[in-house]
Amino acid sequence: MRVSIDWDMCAGAGLCARAAPRVFEVIDLGDGRRRAVLTAPGSDAQLTAAAFACPTLAITILDATGRPLYPAPSDDPRTGR
């Protein structure tokens, strides 16, 4: 599994870091903006828990071929989700 974080969607809530504290961290970008970053490799379970915890669906889990596993792709052309 691979993970991708969409910073345009990330609200910096920090739930990913709570779900997987050894894998994710929330950084302060200034002006009250915060964003999640991947800080270390994680197990499939850790990545999945963090993605499920994200309230804005900013974390995408990809399979080995790059196909999105979570969140499931939709037909919404505005977001691709």
Structure description:
There is one protein chain. The chain has 2 helices and 5 strands. A 3-stranded antiparallel sheet has the order 1-4-5, covered by helices on one side. Strands 2-3 form a two-stranded antiparallel sheet.
Fraction in helix: 10-25%
**What's the helix count?**
2
- Stretches with pLDDT under 50, minimum 5 residues: none
Kindly, what is the distance between the CA atoms of the first and last residues, rounded to a whole number of angstroms?
18 Å
- What Rg do the Cα atoms give? 12 Å
Q: Structural class, judged by helices and strands?
A: alpha+beta
Largest sheet: 3 strands, antiparallel
Mean pLDDT: 89
Proportion in β-strands: 25-35%
What are the secondary-structure elements, in order, as H or E?
EHEEHEE
Strand order of the largest sheet: 1-4-5
Instruction: Please state the overall shape, judged from the principal axes of the Cα atoms.
Output: globular
- The overall strand count is 5
Set out the fold topology.
Elements: E1 2-5, H1 15-19, E2 24-30, E3 33-38, H2 44-53, E4 59-62, E5 68-70
Antiparallel strand pairs: 1-4, 2-3, 4-5
